[in-house]
Design goal:
nucleic acid binding, HRDC-like_sf, RNase_D-like, Nucleotidyltransferase, domain 5, 3 domains, alpha/beta, 3'-5'_exonuclease_dom, 3'-5' exonuclease activity, DNA polymerase, domain 1
Amino acid sequence: MIQAIISRMLNEILKDPVWVDSYHKLDRIVADLAGSPFLAVDTESNSLFAYQEQVCLIQFSTPTSDYLIDPLAISDLSPLEPIFSDPQTEKIFHAAEYDIICLKRDFGFSFNNLFDTMVAARILGRPAVGLGSVLEAEFGIQLDKRYQRANWGQRPLPPAQKTYARFDSHYLIALRQRLSAELIDCGLWELAQEDFNRLCQTPIPVLDNPSDACWRLAGRTEITPRQAAVLQALCTYRDTRARQTNQPQFKVLSNSALVELALAAPQNRSELMGIQSISPRLLERHAEGLLNAIRQGQLAAPPPRPRRNHHRDEELSNRQDALRLWRKETAQSLKVESDVVLPRDVMQAIADVNPENLNALEKIMESVPYRFKRFGADILHAIQN
């Protein structure tokens, strides 16, 4: 039965995708989307082309049709909320985490009943888990990925980009059927469901605190408090210009250029020309702003360093090392990546709490009950020894 579904979906004559750019069209397709037990989903954003990225396209595929929804033309996508939150309709993504974050951030959607084909491929120990690699391995299909870094905010969207977008969701239902059958055969369905459920709870990341951006940019580079103040002023200048021109910050000035400027602190245009990472074009565009920022930084109070715990608890460190070693050895025996055996956040919580018995460990691992059942005793043994 599953093989027949896959064969039909792979060999059908493709209809043109349905372009949805009005409320009227959206209302017409919602019933089709909501009525499908399996719904493949993907999104495209403009993160490489805008100061604040946004979802510029949402692709849906049912077993019979592909839809391309234009959020730039339809500001209210609330009719889609019941579909994403419906526990009866399975939403199939490939590498869902980023899509979920973007959809939650831009539209406030909540999620139930997901299947992630990349997560499934990782659990099954596939050596390459990108969508193109998995489709080629499973079905011999080669995707054209030339538009992966395209500007999805441009309108009208070129026909070639529309074609690219529809294929990012078109084959996911067939791929899901193949991978789910293998997960069941291998006794890994519970483990996969555990990760799919965790994906539904993916939080929107907290933005970095702009007041100490300099320390993050400096990284391992040793800088003085005064250089940090200059770097912070340069960060503020770059952020302002990026916002004014609606560009990502890296397209205004690179991180390495800001660090080099902070360390050298040029005082005039001639000294600025000696900065290796500042090209003539950047010099022409930013010379005055950069020199003003450097002067402001030299007069400003140094930003406070983020607080760090320099006195690591030795017992905590030992537990972390023991868990990492156990996880690595277990993953090698199962031929999967380490975080498939035990997600990093759960591993850290176990090390922090240091449970004394299985009951205490079970409470910490309540979001991963399959892993507790399979590995709980081994985990407890690892941290107690």
